[in-house]
Amino acid sequence: MGKTLLQKVWDLHKVRTLPTGQTQLFIGLHLIHEVTTPQAFDALRERGWRVARPDRTFGTVDHIVPTRQRQRPFLDVMAEDMIASLERNARDFGIPLYDIGDDRQGIVHVIGPELGLTQPGMTIACGDSHTSTHGAFGAVAFGIGTSQVRDVLASQCLAIEPLKVRRIRIAGQLPNGVYAKDVILTIIQRLGVGGGNGYAYEYAGDTIERMSMDERMTVCNMSIEGGARVGYVNPDETTFTYMEGRPFAPQGEAFARAKTWWRSIASDSDAVYDDEVEIRAAELTPVVTWGVNPGQSIGIEGKVPTPGGADQQSVADALGYMGLTAGQAIAGMKVDVAFIGSCTNGRLSDLREAARIVRGHRVANGVKALVVPGSVAVQRAAEREGLDATFRDAGFDWRDAGCSMCLGMNPDKLEGNQVCAASSNRNFKGRQGSPTGRTLLMSPAMVAAAAITGVVSDVRELLAESPAGVR
Ligand code: SF4
Q: β-pairing, 337-340 with 419-422?
């Protein structure tokens, strides 16, 4: 009987079964950042321990970094302390750090793939929930908490419960104006935010096979929002083409040998899955969240639900928080802020698609709009293409790389109960820095459409207005 990629990677990295029933897994790559590491390094110091594999540990700064005015020390004392602490820890423990001012700095889940650190068949851990992003390469990538960061630093191993595998096959051509973000929001809406508990999600089908690596990363990134511990796509030629020549990828003949091995870790054609789900791409439309978790979403032509049934209370609470009336159309809801960025949708292809919508338009009066590239590399590439000028001409702020308004741990925060059209991944209450701020998740193209109309809008209508071939 064949094996899934998850089973193969698991077996290859298994150290032993622990008395708890968990597996002790060797971690091939540990990515660290400023927010979830200070206490972990403190714990190592208290015990006089060293980092087990500094050669397999890489750091960057993303969560708290300002996206403009980056002079040190930062005005925010806590942010300055966090970044100074990571700098000291990286120095003391011999870990490479891509800091402010380094061309390799950026959101941890954007720079790992860019640098070729993320590779098929690897086990990867990082103290951020959206580490599942790296699964796009056929890696098994876990978001971990601070105590697990300590464990991985000290032992390069992670204790983790075995997982079942659900294959989610998406078949067919995505309609115009429907993106990878709409695919994953639809999956979470259909299967529920807890639907993936205990599972790894394997994304398959010709829709996924046709996707670029950027798009696959968007899909895998939000696996965790559907409750799945990890999400992955089997590596293929698209993966290898993306990886070739990246600084940390194998070079020359080693790359050819690596490709052979990477192909071998893909799920076998006769692998058996614990569950299978099929989704038809042709049925999908642009999706917007209306509530306070990523599963509370509807198609752009839809109406927000009326409380009823088992989830009556949660629907009523969410509608109340969002200031929506039961049965109201989501299209036309006024937005105050438009945010394009994050590890879900802050890559070059995201910015290109949003710029395509924005070109020739102006941000609506009263809307604050910002574009925050996911990394310095994305920023530079976008600037070479003139995308920064497109956004600036339209009235957007063009910022430096970081997490920014994904979670508002930096100066980019919502104020009061502002409504934000966001290309990020979480719409929890208070997620974007204001305890009463309201987040509507959608694709970057949909955020661009909301920015220029001032309301939640169907991007397909704007695409229809674009001159053919203009990108
Ligand atoms: S962009 Fe958001 S989800 Fe991604 S690493 Fe930063 S804070 Fe985490």
A: parallel
Q: Where are the domains of the chain?
A: 5-160, 164-283, 287-465
In the sheet with 29-32, reading across from the earlier edge strand, the strands are 97-98, 57-60, 29-32, 123-126, 140-143
Residues above pLDDT 90, as percent of the chain: 96
- Judge whether 354 and 363 are in contact, CB under 8 Å: no
- Per-residue exposure over 220-237, b if at least 16 CB sit within 10 Å of its own CB, e if not: bbbbbbbbbbbbbbbbbe
Distance CA 1, CA 282 (A): 33
Determine the average pLDDT of the residues in 63-72: 93
Task: Kindly report, residue by residue over 357-379, the tens digit of the pLDDT.
Answer: 999 999 999 999 999 999 999 99
Q: How far is the CA of 309 from the centre of ligand 1 (A)?
A: 34
Q: 61 CB under 6 A from ligand 1?
A: no
Burial of 89 (0-12, 13-18, 19+ CB in 10 A): buried
Phi-psi label, residue 278: left if phi above 0, alpha if psi -120 to 50, beta otherwise: beta
CATH for 164-283? 3.40.1060.10
Spacing, Cα 292 to ligand 1 middle (Å): 17
| 147-158 confidence digits (pLDDT tens) | 999 999 999 999
Q: Given ligand 1 and candidates 31, 33, 65, 107, which is best to mutate, with the most ligand atoms within 8 Å of its CB?
A: 107
C-beta 134 within 6 A of ligand 1: no
Q: Is the pLDDT of residue 386 over 80?
A: yes
Taking the domain 287-465, which CATH number applies? Answer: 3.30.499.10
Residue 25: φ, ψ to 5°: -105, 135
Span from the CA of 296 to the centroid of ligand 1 (angstroms):
20
User: 5-160 falls under which CATH superfamily?
Assistant: Aconitase, domain 3 (3.30.499.10)
User: What distance in Å separates the CA atoms of residue 275 and residue 204, rounded to the nearest whole number?
Assistant: 13
- Evaluated on CA atoms 155, 161, 166, 170, the torsion sign reads negative
CA 304, distance to chain mean position in Å, is: 25
374: CA distance to ligand 1 center in Å?
10
130 close to ligand 1 (CB < 6 Angstrom): yes
